[in-house]
Amino acid sequence: MGGLKKYILLILALGLSKSYAQQTIQLSQYIFNGLAVNPAYAGYKEDWTINLSSRLQWAGVDGAPKTSTLSVDGVTNPDNKTIGLGLLVTNDRLGPENNSSIYANYAFRIRLNADDSQRLCLGVGIGAILYNIDGSLFSTGNVTDPSITAGVQNKLAPDFRVGIYYYSPLFYIGASGLNMVPDAYPDPVSIFVKQVRTYYLTTGFIVPISPELNWKPSVLIKEDFKGPTNINAATYFLISDLVWVGASYSTSVQLWKKNNLQTDLSRTDDITGVAAINITPQCRFGYSYDFGTSKLPGYQTASHEISFTYSFRRAKGRILSPRYF
Q1: What distance in Å separates the CA atoms of residue 212 and residue 242, rounded to the nearest whole number?
Q2: How is the chain split into domains, by residue range?
Q3: Beta strand 83-94 with 171-178: parallel, antiparallel or unpaired?
Q4: pLDDT, average across residues 182-198
Q5: Distance separating alpha carbons of residues 193 and 6, to the nearest angstrom
Q6: How far is CA 78 from each of CA 28, 75, 119, 318, rounded to the nearest angstrom?
Q7: How far apart are CA 227 and CA 77, in angstroms?
Q8: Phi, then psi, of 180 in degrees rounded to 5
Q9: CA 312 to CA 290: how far, in whole Å?
Q10: What pLDDT score does 193 carry?
Q11: First-to-last CA distance in the chain?
Q12: Half-sphere exposure (CA, 13 Å, Cβ side) for 229?
């Protein structure tokens, strides 16, 4: 299969099987990486926290997506905890395409009750995305194809994201908008995939079952108004405040009629198994494995994702309730 055809098939398969094109990064362990989908999450854990994640999607497929993220966030003042700051760096690879982004995030955290167990957070993220396509990795079968050059093509674009996030000790809900800066001067013959505004709604809660067991269900809804709506429903159990085990189910639905959407799309659902361990109260390691059927002929593929979180305990100030989210 020629490199260009394979690249197009990968993009189409991502768009159809996961209900959206690879417009924003995709993570199975989003519950441990809230800043990746909502800038208002900055400072939620209050202590300065570093999060690393790496995802290999469709293991065994040449040119399959690889996603990496690095985030650091915390509150600036451990006494009033009003301002949360965060830095998010991402890298997303798909065949000859390599996209990198960086965002500075700010959250204004409004205290809602006397014991400071509830906050409403308003957040913004300002950054830029560097798109990169290496034309030398294509094999078009047509040396005169004018759409592909042998060199590297780059495009730098500003980006802006907004979000709102409410949490209490046992419940959270958040909404966010990503890719909020439209392309003012789109190139109709550009090889770069056009970014579209993408909206997230996330929510979850904790149900204490026993002193040693907590249940945490959560839902993530993703909508770009260009394709089917993606829904991820997850259920996790926290055992002795030490081990997380759970699973999630991802599918696509058409909540309303979209005139630009094909009517003959077939739906592919994914099931993900997740395990994580709190090595210490400040340090967590997680692994997830996605089971799914790709749209690439002849491939039965799976995805792997690892994550690592470490919080730096402050000399002053204290967190009044556990941070489950």
Answers
A1: 9
A2: 3-312
A3: unpaired
A4: 67
A5: 15
A6: 31, 6, 15, 8
A7: 42
A8: -85, -10
A9: 31
A10: 64
A11: 44
A12: 14
> Residue 141 carries which side chain, given as an amino acid letter?
G
DSSP 9-47: HHHHHHHHHSSS-TTS---TTGGG-GGGT-GGGTTTTSS
* E strand or H helix that includes residue 6: helix 3-17
Overall residue count recorded for the chain in this entry: 325
CATH number listed for the domain at residues 3-312 = 2.40.160.40
How is residue 265 written in tokens?
A: 């799309």
Beta strands (DSSP E) in 112-151 are 119-134
* More confident of the two residues 321 and 72: 72
pLDDT mean over 245-256: 86
**Which residue type is seen at 5?**
K
Query: Taking all residues of the chain, what is their mean pLDDT, rounded to a whole number?
Result: 82
In this structure, what token pair is assigned to residue 248? 């999630």
Which residue type does 120 have?
L
CB 164 within 8 A of CB 174: yes
Of 318, 317, 310, 316, which Cα lies nearest the Cα of 52? 310
pTM of the model: 0.84
Helix or strand (DSSP H, E) at 62: none
Residue whose tokens read 């690249």: 7
Judged by DSSP in three states, 136 sits in: helix
Question: Which residue has tokens 């490199």?
Answer: 3
Query: Identity (one letter) of the amino acid at 263?
Result: T
The neighbour count for residue 22, using CB atoms within 10 Å, is: 20
Residues 75 and 80: their CA atoms lie apart, in Å, by 9
